[in-house]
Description:
Elements: E1 7-9, E2 12-14, E3 24-26, E4 29-30, E5 45-53, H1 65-74, E6 79-85, E7 100-103, E8 111-116, E9 120-126, E10 136-158, E11 167-177, E12 182-189, E13 204-206, E14 212-214, E15 218-225, E16 237-242, E17 258-263, E18 282-307, H2 312-322, E19 332-339, E20 345-347, H3 368-373, E21 378-380, H4 391-396, E22 404-406, H5 410-421, E23 427-429, E24 444-450, H6 455-464, E25 467-471, E26 478-481, E27 496-498, E28 504-511, E29 520-525, E30 534-540, E31 546-553, E32 558-566, E33 572-576, E34 579-583, E35 592-599, E36 613-620, E37 625-631, E38 637-643, E39 650-653, E40 656-658, H7 664-669, E41 674-678, E42 683-689, E43 694-700, E44 710-714, E45 718-723, E46 736-739, E47 745-752, E48 760-768, E49 778-781, E50 807-808, E51 817-821, H8 823-829, E52 833-839, E53 846-849, E54 858-863
Parallel strand pairs: 3-38, 5-6, 6-19, 15-16, 21-22, 22-23, 27-34
Antiparallel strand pairs: 1-2, 4-35, 5-24, 7-18, 8-10, 9-10, 10-18, 11-17, 11-18, 12-15, 12-18, 13-14, 19-20, 20-21, 24-25, 25-33, 26-28, 28-31, 29-30, 29-32, 32-33, 32-34, 35-38, 36-37, 37-43, 38-42, 39-40, 39-43, 41-42, 44-54, 45-47, 46-53, 47-52, 48-51, 48-54, 49-50, 49-52
Amino acid sequence: xxxxxxxxxxxxxxxxxxxxxxxxxxxxxxxxxxxxxxxxxxxxxxxxxxxxxxxxxxxxxxxxxxxxxxxxxxxxxxxxxxxxxxxxxxxxxxxxxxxxxxxxxxxxxxxxxxxxxxxxxxxxxxxxxxxxxxxxxxxxxxxxxxxxxxxxxxxxxxxxxxxxxxxxxxxxxxxxxxxxxxxxxxxxxxxxxxxxxxxxxxxxxxxxxxxxxxxxxxxxxxxxxxxxxxxxxxxxxxxxxxxxxxxxxxxxxxxxxxxxxxxxxxxxxxxxxxxxxxxxxxxxxxxxxxxxxxxxxxxxxxxxxxxxxxxxxxxxxxxxxxxxxxxxxxxxxxxxxxxxxxxxxxxxxxxxxxxxxxxxxxxxxxxxxxxxxxxxxxxxxxxxxxxxxxxxxxxxxxxxxxxxxxxxxxxxxxxxxxxxxxxxxxxxxxxxxxxxxxxxxxxxxxxxxxxxxxxxxxxxxxxxxxxxxxxxxxxxxxxxxxxxxxxxxxxxxxxxxxxxxxxxxxxxxxxxxxxxxxxxxxxxxxxxxxxxxxxxxxxxxxxxxxxxxxxxxxxxxxxxxxxxxxxxxxxxxxxxxxxxxxxxxxxxxxxxxxxxxxxxxxxxxxxxxxxxxxxxxxxxxxxxxxxxxxxxxxxxxxxxxxxxxxxxxxxxxxxxxxxxxxxxxxxxxxxxxxxxxxxxxxxxxxxxxxxxxxxxxxxxxxxxxxxxxxxxxxxxxxxxxxxxxxxxxxxxxxxxxxxxxxxxxxxxxxxxxxxxxxxxxxxxxxxxxxxxxxxxxxxxxxxxxxxxxxxxxxxxxxxxxxxxxxxxxxxxxxxxxxxxxxxxxxxxxxxxxxxxxxxxxxxxxxxxxxxxxxxxxxxxxxxx
Length: 864
């Protein structure tokens, strides 16, 4: 990476970072791409969560908690974060709320529709006759059987105890009403079957007896003439009330305005016990309709409104009291809130128990910092779409300082990438913004790796970025990390600190299941670019699992990598959290390090303003010393991890020497400041018990001894063959590669040497022979490193081969290993990438095993 005079961490530039705050920190220094020690224990697991769900408490949503829990459990969820709008049923949309819904002079918030068989219909605004305002709604239906023309809107008031009566008022001007036809208004509980939105309508509801009834529908109809036919409603329970029974200022009369008033809430008393809804359930699918049965119904409607009074604060207090009713050991609903009438954001801890605790915002982003000050992370919701800030605002403000960013659409992912390119850590989440209480296998969710299904554990893990995003069916686990042997996700919150001399670092993707044949795993990286994120590698899959390691380019002062899975048609199926890399000027190339975990004494305070980890760091070449500053809540235990080629000669925390643990087991059990160096793995671990909100740590190294001799075996980072007979065909994912002397086929192999430490003594290339050939193959160095495994073909292959081969295999026998000494090529490429070209002078085609096969090529290197 490019060198810099200072290291910027979290927006703060460190000029002389010498000390780290006194927290309990476990630090490891990473040697090249060496394996990091897995943090998670056997108790950890993936929890399936939706971080953005609305219930009937929101003014524009349908399902109660029973319906939500039933669908979520059936779809394998462990956690639902109930992010109801911060004004509950008083949340305004286009100037209307569930407690004040009206139809006046406009179709705003209302949808036109028909049901049944109509020979003619009218659904339009007209300027005469008019009872109020400038227009009335003209509805007319003609049918030789049965059909209706109507308008509908999503929601009306809820039934919460203390809510005033839901008073429905409207005026109607009938002009024709044949026998059997009718004019009516209606309101449903659980949804109206004649309203075909959402797709799972009726959504259903839970009764006061505790019976969760998805699909259950009760419809209250208030009509002139005849009620709508029962055939429209299927199994729904319909209660029909004749408006000529004292609801209006006059009986039915053609050619005159009739004013009607209905106390809808009072009709709940007419429901049998099996149909009684919960107190916080609500009216939905409000309708205004003309229905024709063997005739015509024609009328004008005006001055429609339904009103109730309900305290938003009381609604959320009542929600807290009932939200745990459906929890089990493997399923929880957590009380959260979507902040703002505009510019939405999520606060996840909103289980208020007193109306005085209630708070709301016009712009949700104004609540991000107050949410973080309560000790829990905040999320910026859906930038670039209705209710969110613009994409440009999200990028320029680094997601308004939120800890999490909703990235469920491509524009939101683009915003995320733009922020990551600035070197700003931010965790992505998926959630459905679900208003209907229904999930499918394709629903967008988040999977969180945590030790237990508790609020604090999930909040800590999602803040740290121990997660991935995927379709509901993508349940096998999807981790991006630095350890080729680990299935655990890297904590994306914390950058990896590396030397500017490093050009690449190996990263590892492990997918434990859920892939479909033809899915494509794409690696994306910016290589330090501030403007572009590019595809680093792309692998088509044929099995349910995937495991691969690729070198990540470290250009510029800030680089990152992430991975995603797309179907063969391009549909996004899963996204990993990122890993960010930051330069430390002068840092030796064999050292890198990162925060692995911070454990606060409160069990929360996991926000960007509280648990900040490394806030500055520097390398002092003259003193051969690493220094770090940590900023976290006093009493925290911070775990950093990595490797170094040599052991420290001493560690200090806030000027006091820290003793070395006798073993890694002793280190793990220690509760105070300590450190341990594991010579077998080059792993360095440091714990610092932070006495105050900041601590200074110094890690001193003596004159570094030469690394011990070792032999390492590397597999290729990429390989492919090219074929002049198919000059535009890519063979990067073939299970074999080929050479022949007719000038038809050549092969390329690449190895990542960034993890090499010490002097290369000798290096041998070993390749498995699939076929027999008497002459064998020659190995050439290739100076051109730009070829890409997934795109190389005969036409774009490198031309800069060395003039003479470095070595030759000799005779190749099928089913045996071949060996070629490539020591000078490895010595020249140490610390970077090694690119080899294979050819043969024989006219007999030779098949060799590629990295996609069981017998992967090997580069065996002895160092001293």
